[in-house]
Amino acid sequence: MTNNTFSTKTISLNQYGIKDAKVHYQLSSDQLHEETINKKQGIETSLGAITVNTGEFTGRSPKDRFIVKDSITEDKVWWGDINIPFEPAAFDALYDKVVDYLSEKEIYVRDAYACADKNYKLNIRVINEYPWSNMFAYNMFLRPTEAELDGFEEEWLVVNAPGFMANPEVDGTRQHNFAILNFEKKIALIGGTGYTGEIKKGIFSALNFVLPVFKNTLPMHCSANVGKDGDTAIFFGLSGTGKTTLSADPERKLIGDDEHGWTNENTVFNFEGGCYAKVIDLSEDKEPEIYHAIKKGAILENVVLDENKNVDFADTSITQNTRVSYPIYHIDNIQVPSIGKNPKNIFFLTADAFGVLPPISKLTPGQAAYHFISGYTAKVAGTEAGITEPVPSFSACFGAPFMPLHPTKYAEMLSNKMQEADVNVWLINTGWTGGPYGTGSRMKLKYTRAMITAALEGKLNDVDFHTHPIFGLAMPKACPNVPTEVLNPIDTWENAANYNAKAAELSNSFKKNFAQFSAYANEEIMNGGPIN
Ligand code: ATP
Ligand code: MN
After folding, report:
1. Are 166 and 176 in contact (CB under 8 A)?
2. Domain boundaries, the chain
3. Half-sphere exposure of 50 (CA within 13 A, CB side)
């Protein structure tokens, strides 16, 4: 891995319709850091990392994510509110406007790739209006060697123009911002938003179509790490449930924090070369790995500084979704390359804001399929525009916004793989305990970590379990380094009747949501749902 490849090569963007641009090709991380400061688009913090403000958008905007309906996608994509169709002609017209907008500007170009397993390598060229967005792409994607850069040919193109505003009436968008995937042309076109997460999730969504359809590989919205004995663990979960936090474990090598593929060759590989961590309330004490990754080369987003350029991680005045991106080698203990063997343990992370689900439970294969298809969490404020209070949320495969195919397609692949690999599957509630949001409190990170460690070390193999009366989940009666009274949620509530009422409410939400999938589910999966 080269950390600071840069090139003296000059390239022209005429082939893309970007005319007379001043092209900065493949700048080093240090150069982009300086450019960002010189252009007054960022500030160097006391930690050495720069911080930028992403502008109007401080989270993704799922309602403005479109897929061009073309010969490749038409029959395969699960069209609807998540995968919103876009007309090919409208795409072409909007693309022309965007490249026209980028013409004659200073432009930052980055050649990179996705997928750490060379059999799946996807070359990407990223064209950015701003230096820090280009640095984000440098942090998040994988870095070609000098030799690989010679004769580099991109398969996918990302065109990222945060300053370009669409006109919904003529351009076919919902509002001025958009993220559009075009599978025929292999272009991700992003405009009107500076939120960098759109860049990485654009390529993720492309891979979530390409890998299962053409490469027989299961793409997963999960983090992954590997223990001393080479045992891989993966952690599925929606935004804010703990994928990045819990995969950064000093005792285990990090494979990746967000996007992975599970191949038919019994391997799990990272799509990315960097991490993108939430930094709300980050402390050196509780999350040292992530805290120490914030140094020169990293990019903080939307944090607030004091007069000495110290970051106030508790300040959410810009957004709750404050972030940092950094190349994966900013974490001490990493797996190189980012590939592991078949997982031995799979964790489904949920941040249940109702305080109902047990902090750890062991799932049967039917329950695993049911909970994977359900993809329950309570959306905590932040990553998405418009969400400021927790809301119950079901997002199939723990990542529906990024999954172009019908959820059952991914669920089937996962079920088959889980069976073949003979994995343990655990449901972890990193959310509330002792009552719902407002009354109870978030489960202590150190307890969640202890539960995961116990599961990974086989320390829950021989303990007794009892069955949750409503969800049918197997809850361990004891767990090393965790107070017994937090293991069964009803014991943490002041009033058991209130707990039962809330649990019944949540059970109903599960059933209601699952109705749309019951036609696809067999008896085993249906039995994996709430039992009352
Ligand atoms: P995204 O998909 O948006 O990247 P993520 O799943 O990676 O989300 P994290 O970045 O790990 O989520 O966010 C989890 C947040 O919750 C962190 O800010 C972490 O400090 C906080 N947190 C509090 N308690 C816990 C807990 N018990 N387990 C995990 N995370 C916790
Ligand atoms: Mn994450």
Report:
1. yes
2. 14-41+64-215, 218-263+342-528, 275-330
3. 26
Helix, coil or strand: residue 303? coil
Catalytic residues: 60, 201, 221, 239, 243-244, 258, 323
Going by CA atoms, what residue is nearest to atom 21 of ligand 1? 242
| CA nearest to 522, candidates 418, 397, 373 | 373
Instruction: Give the pair of three-digit tokens for residue 266.
Output: 């019994």
Fold of 218-263+342-528: Phosphoenolpyruvate Carboxykinase; domain 3 (3.90.228)
Helices 365-374, 496-514: axis angle to 10 degrees equals: 80
> Closest residue (by CA) to atom 9 of ligand 1?
242
For residue 225, report the distance from its CA to the centre of ligand 1, in Å: 16
What is the C-alpha to C-alpha distance for residues 495 and 343, in angstroms, rounded to an integer?
39
Residue 45 Cα, ligand 1 centroid: separation in angstroms?
23
DSSP notation for 198-218: HHHHHHHHHHHHHHHHHS--E
Q: Which of 226, 225, 241 is nearest to 428 (CA)?
A: 241
Answer yes or no: is 238 a known binding residue: yes
Please name the residue ranges forming H helices in 235-277: 243-247
How many Cβ atoms from other residues are within 10 Å of residue 512's Cβ?
10
Buried b (16+ CB within 10 A) or exposed e, 20-47: ebebbbbbbbebbbbbbeeeebbebbeb
Backbone angles phi, psi at 407, to 5 degrees: -55, -35
Domain range 14-41+64-215, CATH architecture: 3-Layer(aba) Sandwich (3.40)
Distance, CA of 511 to CA of 532 (rounded, Å): 10
Query: Which single residue is written with the structure tokens 């750890």?
Result: 360
Q: What is the CATH number of domain 275-330?
A: 2.170.8.10
| Contact 345 CB / ligand 1 (< 6 Å) | no
Q: Decide whether any atom of ligand 1 lies within 6 Å of the 443 Cβ.
A: yes
Q: What is the pLDDT along the chain (532 residues), one digit of tens a residue?
A: 444 455 667 899 999 999 999 999 999 999 999 999 999 999 999 999 999 999 999 999 999 999 999 999 999 999 999 999 999 999 999 999 999 999 999 999 999 999 999 999 999 999 999 999 999 999 999 999 999 999 999 999 999 999 999 999 999 999 999 999 999 999 999 999 999 999 999 999 999 999 999 999 999 999 999 999 999 999 999 999 999 999 999 999 999 999 999 999 999 999 999 999 999 999 999 999 999 999 999 999 999 999 999 999 999 999 999 999 999 999 999 999 999 999 999 999 999 999 999 999 999 999 999 999 999 999 765 445 665 456 889 999 999 999 999 999 999 999 999 999 999 999 999 999 999 988 899 999 999 999 999 999 999 999 999 999 999 999 999 999 999 999 999 999 999 999 999 999 999 999 999 999 999 999 999 999 999 9
Q: What is the pTM of this model?
A: 0.96
